[in-house]
């Protein structure tokens, strides 16, 4: 019986972590123009930048 409870507890824990991770991954930065988007980090590729597409900042290549 104790093994079954541990198993169900583990399944519930993993499912809840999965649901939280999928909610966080869907976040977007809203914008009106390209200047509203964040600047690339210093250690990122020099040919990449954020671009405002349909009022959302998206990663793009030059």
Automatic annotation (TrEMBL):
Stored Pfam families: Nodulin_late (PF07127)
Residue intervals of the Late nodulin domain: 1-58
Q: Does the keyword Signal apply?
A: yes
Keywords attached to this Swiss-Prot or TrEMBL record, sorted alphabetically, are: Signal
- Top-level taxon of origin: Eukaryota
Q: Name one GO molecular function term.
A: metal ion binding
Q: Where is the signal peptide?
A: 1-26
The name on file for this protein is Nodule Cysteine-Rich (NCR) secreted peptide
């Amino acid at each position: 019986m104790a093994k079954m409870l541990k198993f169900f507890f583990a399944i519930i824990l993993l499912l809840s972590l999965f649901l939280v991770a999928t909610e966080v991954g869907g976040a977007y930065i809203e914008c009106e123009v390209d200047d509203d988007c964040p600047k690339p980090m210093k250690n990122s590729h020099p040919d990449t930048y954020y671009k405002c597409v349909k009022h959302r900042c998206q990663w793009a290549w030059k």
